[in-house]
Amino acid sequence: MATQVKESSANAAVLSKEEILRYSRHLIMPEVGMEGQLKLKKAKVLLVGSGGLGAPLGLYLAAAGVGRLGIVDFDAVDFTNLQRQVTFVTSDVGRKKLDAARERLKNLNPEIQIDTYETRLTSDNALQILRDYDIVADGTDNFPTRYLVNDACVLLGKPNVYGSIFRFEGQASIFGFPGGPCYRCLYPEPPPPGLVPSCAEGGVLGVLPGIIGCIQAMETLKLILGSGDSLVGRLLLFDAMRMRFRELKLRKNPECPVCGEHRTITKLIDYAEFCGIRGEEMEAKPLGVPEITPKELKARLDRGDDLYILDVREPHEYQICNLRGHLIPLGDLPRRVSELDSSREIVAHCRSGKRSADAVQFLTDAGFHKIWNLKGGILAWSDEVDPSVPKY
Amino acid sequence: MGVKVMIPTPLRQYAEKRESVDLEAKTVAEALSSLTSQFGELKRHLYSDDGRLRSFVNVYVNDEDIRYLQKEKTALQQGDTVSIVPSIAGGSGITA
């Protein structure tokens, strides 16, 4: 369950001399001024996730003097985070994200209170955690948590400052604002697992979450100050490659199951089930295709067995590291299947073993019977057979 | 009517990596059907098995959601932009 560390909270009704100096560039703006800065000081914002979006959110909201920041996360910092999660530094690798984030934000602004919740946000704890806050900033990276945050915000009547990113494209909006649309008005249902590109199409240009997270931070500040035109009712789309912002109208769906007139969702549900994912079992679930372990593969190759290695990753991944396999990206497999000889024994692999499991399933359906999936992919090969192969 | 269909990043891999496609269509349905006949793999990402537009894929004509127009029967004018906007999950990047 969540651990909540309360820290000294200064008098919220006035600014100290130190605070006046710290926030002077806000105070001299008529749009903020003393009144606005005191609103910021009294504000309570919860960040769900302290990753790519959470980093700029946390840094800028702390710097701006938002009086209380809550952060929900349960992860540890790893090397692959550093490319975009600018809260963390190299020496943080291995530490709990919450510890590193608290230290960094406290260092940035000792005047604010930071509460951390070391837990996965669930249907059991979400209402309790969110209840204390005025605004929720959603920096999650998965659909179950996204729908959970949405529904909890709607049920509690709290605005949900939303951002989402994919490779070099981002979305931002505000959901759950009284009278405004919610995430379910935009997308009533999540995609079924496996249909959205994940593994093969993963990755993100490091600056992108910075840009989208900053937009979320700006919208959060505007909500607190009550000024300007917010993103309520608008979906902002950002394409970094073309450096273009577009805006679409977002309407409240009268038939929305959680915020519509005849709502059917009046309490939090099982979001893993809603998203078609069996939660905790997800990792352990066998993929249902014949597998070979890296050690078995190594032994067979050393014996000189005639095995055909099929690499179903993308060409740019092949350049990072490879097992000298024949490269056919998963997406190209249907039209390039004729390049394969079904009489030979084939071992398919990808980075982690998921895409290649799909490839093995596809090829089995296509009449290939001597085919195995390399369990754990090239990552497991690096761990168990050849550590000189870089992991990514 | 000459219209432009915007392909979102996650679906570009099924459309020869194109960002947009210019085509002739009088309605949204015609535009999407022309698009999926040109790029067959897009079809299962846009439509469910019962032939309905998937609920995590929204379609806009210019800045308006077709669910609040005439859905797929929405008429198109010369120069309209049809945007396909699927839900994306990323908050920090790699998911698998």
Could you give a short description of this structure?
Chain A is α/β, with parallel strands linked by helices and 392 residues long. Chain A is 34% helix and 17% strand. In chain A, strand 5 and strand 6 form a beta hairpin.
Structure commentary:
- The complex is a heterodimer of chains A (392) and B (96).
- Chain A is elongated, with a radius of gyration of 24 Å.
- In chain A, α15 links the parallel β12 and β13.
- In chain A, the strands form 2 sheets. An 8-stranded mixed beta sheet of chain A has the order 3-2-1-4-5-6-7-8, with helices on both faces. A 5-stranded parallel beta sheet of chain A has the order 9-13-12-10-11.
- Chain A has 392 residues and is α/β, with parallel strands linked by helices.
- In chain A, 34% of the residues lie in helices and 17% in strands.
- The longest helix of chain B has 11 residues, at 28-38.
- Chain B contains 3 helices and 5 strands, in the order βαβααβββ.
- In chain B, a hairpin with a 2-residue loop joins β3 (57-61) and β4 (64-65).
- Chain B is an alpha+beta fold.
- At the A-B interface, β5, β7 and β8 of A face β4 and β5 of B.
